[in-house]
Amino acid sequence: MANARAVLALRAEEGGLDRLLWSFVGDPKAMSKDLKRRGFAFVGPTVCYAFMQAVGMVNDHAADCFRYRELLPAC
């Protein structure tokens, strides 16, 4: 319930959870620290990094993997 309340508070304060989370691309420790400060629970750096992987915020494919180049931003 604490996480749900924190998300609702973010809607009014920051424009939404997605905007806040995308501001931490590449820094799961900062994401974890900020979310904890805002009242979220179970948001350690490992959980935050796993979330970043799951939603495509980081590209963890090896450079020789066919998916690595497919996932690079268009230049």
List the helices and strands and how they pair.
Layout: H1 2-13, H2 17-22, H3 28-37, H4 45-55, H5 66-70
Helix pairs in contact: 3-4
Give an account of the 3D structure.
- With 75 residues, the protein is mostly helical.
- The chain has helices at 2-13, 17-22, 28-37, 45-55, 66-70.
- Helix 3 crosses helix 4 (45-55).
- The radius of gyration is 14 Å and the shape is elongated.
- The model has no long low-confidence stretch (mean pLDDT 87).
List keywords for this structure.
elongated; 5 helices; 75 residues; mainly alpha
User: What can be said about the biggest beta sheet?
Assistant: none
Number of strands: 0
Q: What is the overall pLDDT average? A: 87
Find the structural class using helix and strand composition: mainly alpha
What's the short story on this structure?
This protein is mainly α. Helix content is 59%, strand content 0%.
